[in-house]
Fold:
Amino acid sequence: MKIQHLKLLNFRNYEKIELNFSQNYNIIYGNNGVGKTNLVESIYVLALTKSFRGSVDKVLIMNNKDVCRVEGTVQDKYENKYKVIIKDGGKRVKINNTKVDKLSDYISKISVVLFNPDDLRFIKDSPSVRRKAIDLEISQINNIYLKHLNTYNKLLKQRNMYLKTTNINANASSEYLDILTGKLVESGEKVYLSRKKYIDLLNERIGSIYNSICGIDDLKLEYVSDYKNFDREKILNKYKENLNRDIILGKTGFGVHHDDFRFKFMGYNIKDYGSEGQQKNAIIAIKFTELEIFYQIRGNYPILILDDLFSELDRFKINNILNLINDDIQTFITTTDIDKISEEILSKSKLFEVDDGYVRED
Structure:
């Protein structure tokens, strides 16, 4: 999968630009604060319709403008044109100038794997951050998963609302609550099995990739779930055991919405015992493992974005990482210092110098 052409209108600090990219390496360089990350962010928005920075959509629109637009020509099995239009009141997406009504039908058409310094939040922050990251990667591979996840979240919301109703009204129908719980378990099983399959695929490869980066192969991602070793009858009994507590609290205290994922390095939780460098290498390893899983399932590689990856790495580590990238992967690298990149890589790269909203193609 390759993005051939990108066109931006009023996106962040880019008023109007058009760029053509290399099928291999694209190196985006310049001083801090000039818009390098904004540029790769636009590619991410084109793929997933939202920013990786956690920003609300309207901040993507240039100051004093009403709308921004990201357009791209992407070559997969066929060449297609994609468009994301963002206004203060919402956003629209199009494929080949045809409006797509559901974002879930648009997401997964363009696949992107991103490394950004904020990805360390996957290790350091709450389980919800880790669930969101894993869900996003699975959804890019299979948009059916996104539909299962949306169904689960809707049922969870309905059950929680009815728990609150039951707390207020003792005569509320227990039969309806049982129906909601049964549907929630059925939907939760689909989410659990998809997550488990994905984590199993990660663990088949992540150790060897971690070894390629830093010479140690003992890295695993542990999946922690209430649905572990799924047994429908036992899980339904668990909901019954927790029912009084759920009614009092007005929320469901058991289910895949509490799932967590933990990096284990040499048997220890890397969040508690790993150094900053080990944590960063673990995140890099999972990103490159995701590339291989995409290829195994989809038959092609996603677009790879390495945003400010090299700021704290020595030349040896940088070259180890770049050696993991084969020529079939279109790669975007942002950096303030192209001198850290080997001549071999530079010779295969297209360079883009960024200076406060302007881009010069070398």
In short: The chain has two domains: 1-111+302-362, 126-299. The radius of gyration is 22 Å.
